[in-house]
Amino acid sequence: MLTKIEELLQEVDQLTAQNAEELEALRIKYLSKKGIINALMADFRNVPAEQKKQVGMKLNELKTRTQERIAALKETFENQDADMSGIDLTRTAYPIGLGTRHPLNIVRNQIIDIFSRLGFTIADGPEVEDDLHVFTKMNFAPDHPARDMQDTFFVETNPDDVTKNIILRTHTSSVQARTMEVTQPPIRVICPGRVYRNEAISYRAHCFFHQVEGLYVDKNVSFTDLKQVLLQFAQEMFGPETKIRLRPSYFPFTEPSAEMDISCHICGGEGCPFCKYTGWVEILGCGMVDPAVLDACGIDSKVYSGYAFGMGVERIANLKYKVKDLRMFSENDTRFLEEFEAAN
């Protein structure tokens, strides 16, 4: 029997299995009630008395080593199963194409980067706002058209106090109001974010779009400061040869106000269909912060002055990439998005 046990010990040390079924077959062969080891133990009673101690020790060693070997093989299979547990067999086969950044994010990040290098920090605010911060503190007249449901999405109305109407913000100027409420000058922030207006969706307009507005409030801020900052931005964004033009305009929250054009970077200012043969393309609105806005936000307009500007991210993206249909930015057509891989 000792010879048989020694052979089995060597055999057990070499046990292998390719899968769980083979491992179970080995367990049954050696460790089940009708297995080899139980058969040897049943035959133990026939061993001479003088050999029982030695044979018994060997039998126990054989059983222990067999159990350990089978347990080790089982652990190997369990580890393999754990490694495969995260695989989704319904996923698209390799290779999986890498995505790209959205063109609006590319342009937004470029705008933020330029103004960050000019000393501006980022301010953020809620998209669901109250009338107080969107309109009232921005010096909008009580009967201004922007306060009508034809122009603004209303979430909740308060007939007793219009300043408590809850709306989807129509511009990120509300972030400027909130910033001025809690911060004393000097203030130098940009306010990027999504805004909403009740407009018919077409290739030229959408019910939501993205803005980046800027605000600088301090002592002795002048229109010259505004012009120089916007010139620097235009040349950083569209090239060092870019020129700017400021035309008088009107906004409730700035006085004086202006629309800013840049020289057409397609024709170099010579005139083309893109700029309607004028040589200029409008990109943003700007102006000196109206004293009424400063006072409404808790800043002394007799001590401080400031300028503000705002631009549509889609507008800048259209100028850079010549996208003809505004709706393409929100349709998630991968064929369109793949065109901007090089812009990353």
List key phrases describing it.
single chain, 344 residues, alpha+beta, BirA Bifunctional Protein, domain 2, 7-stranded mixed β-sheet, 3-stranded antiparallel β-sheet, 37% helix, 20% strand
How are the secondary structure elements laid out?
Blueprint: H1 2-13, H2 20-31, H3 36-42, H4 52-84, H5 103-117, E1 121-122, E2 128-130, H6 131-134, E3 154-156, E4 166-168, H7 173-182, E5 187-196, E6 208-218, H8 223-238, E7 244-251, E8 254-263, E9 280-289, H9 291-296, E10 305-312, H10 313-321, H11 334-337
Parallel strand pairs: 1-5
Antiparallel strand pairs: 2-4, 3-4, 5-6, 6-10, 7-8, 8-9, 9-10
Written overview of the protein:
By secondary structure, the protein is α+β, with helices and mostly antiparallel strands. It folds into 2 domains: 2-84; 103-343, 2-Layer Sandwich (BirA Bifunctional Protein, domain 2), CATH 3.30.930.10. 37% of the residues lie in helices and 20% in strands. The chain has 11 helices and 10 strands. It has a 7-stranded mixed beta sheet, sandwiched between helices. It has a 3-stranded antiparallel beta sheet with strand order 2-4-3. A hairpin with a 2-residue loop joins β7 and β8 (254-263). α1 (2-13) runs parallel beside α4 (52-84), α2 packs antiparallel against α4 (52-84) and α5 crosses α10 (313-321). The longest helix is centred in the first third of the chain and has 33 residues, at 52-84. The chain starts with a helix and ends in a 7-residue tail after the last helix. 28% of the residues are buried. The model has no long low-confidence stretch (mean pLDDT 87).
